[in-house]
Amino acid sequence: MSTAGPLAGIRIIEVGVMLAGPYATMMLADLGAEVIKVEPPGGEISRQVSDSYFASLNRNKQSVMLDLRSEEGRRRLGELVADSHALLVNMKPSAIRRLGLTYESLKQFNERIVCVAMTGFGLDGGDDPAFDYVIQAATGVAAMTGDPEGPPTLPGYSSADNSTGLTAALGLLAQIVSGRGGQIDVSLQDVMLSQLNYRAAAFLNDGVEPQRLPNGAHSYYVPAQLFPTADGYLALFITHDGFWAAFAAEAGIDGFATMAERAARRDEVLELVGAVLRGDSALNWQRRLQLLGIPVAAVRTLPEALAATPQALVTAGEFRLVGSPIHIAGYEPEYRPAPQLDEHHQVAAQPS
User: Which UniProt keywords apply (predicted)?
Assistant: First the structure.
């Protein structure tokens, strides 16, 4: 088993706040990168949320406390930059520029430094506050989510922040691989619009505006949604005629053999399928249909999902966490606990 991660030897400076930036660099740290988290006096604000919150986003990192508003803090940052591959920051554009965290400001220390700025609307997009829920509202995600008779709905987790973190990590690595330094600009707004891919394309090219459908139903595939059962809810996702044929045989349903027919007669199909599924529990339907290779799952709570996937859980110090989703043959991450504030202050003075 290899002990060195695929990103061993890569050093990344993070000036991260809350979720999006720290999540991006934690993914890279799990893969073996050396991540130095630069924190202001008093510590990064997410330390005040809860210990488990901070631990879930900052394992495998080092902490150096610098006051970037001071001349000494900027000098020590320059020392770090001189010996690093990339710097990632998520703040308002004005703060990024004021603190000198752009490529234009830092190339004097290292022309090959990759500078990633994560903002709400882009480095030139202004300073309007841009938290995850705000972006979901502004990009149409909330409007297309929820019951058609109810209000717009937000997911139960920070989808915009997490998605932007992964996108920023990809851009950072791409520029490092190129061998060139430079500025990378990643915004929450652009990432969420990008993730609306086929929804946006349907409107831009065909004039089809997204409509909310009951039970989270898919706009193209039928049946593909949540269904109430005799006990619990079931997610059933029939995407092609082969799946339908297998499901219909198990459920005792005749007709609707083609995708086009099922889409054209959506209400009839859903009424019939719903009636059949109410005859058994969600777990029993899952067991029956999985044997046929049909995409299906009983709706779980988060505690139930974690209990069912112990292989996804790791321990970092005193905290149990969800581990890296990236599994590389021959490499097993070492999950170190999140650092104490300024625990690695000597790193800035003596870069490795």
Answer: Transferase
Tell me the average pLDDT of the chain: 96
With a cut of 70, say whether residue 348 has pLDDT above it. no
| pLDDT score at 96 | 98
Residues 6+ apart with CB under 8 A from 194: 167
Q: Report how far residue 172's alpha carbon sits from residue 28's, in angstroms, rounded to the nearest whole number.
A: 10
Tell me, what's the pLDDT at 3?
Answer: 74
Note whether 186 and 201 are within 8 A (CB): no
**Residues 227-234, mean pLDDT to the nearest whole number:** 98
3-state secondary structure string, the chain?
CECCCCCCCCEEEEECCCCHHHHHHHHHHHCCCEEEEEECCCCCHHHHCCHHHHHHHHCCEEEEECCCCCHHHHHHHHHHHHCCCEEEEECCHHHHHHCCCCHHHHCCCCCCCEEEEEECCCCCCCCCCCCHHHHHHHCCCCCCCCCCCCCCCCCCCCHHHHHHHHHHHHHHHHHHHHCCCEEEEEEHHHHHHHHCHHHHHHHHHHCCCCCCCHHHCCCCCCCEEEEECCCCEEEEECCCHHHHHHHHHHHCCCCCCCHHHHHHCHHHHHHHHHHHHCCCCHHHHHHHHHCCCCCEEECCCHHHHHHHCHHHEEEECCEEEECCCCCECCECCCCCCCCCCCCCCHHHHCCC
**Fold entry, domain 11-196+312-322:** Rossmann fold (3.40.50)
Average pLDDT of span 102-119 = 98
Residue of 215, 213, 269, 217 whose CA lies nearest to 241: 269
| Domain residue ranges in the chain | 11-196+312-322, 233-298
Q: Output the pLDDT for position 212.
A: 95
Q: Which residues have CB under 8 Å from 273's CB, separation 6+?
A: 223, 227, 236, 251, 253
Between residues 238 and 129, which one has the greater pLDDT? 238
Range 270-280 average pLDDT: 98
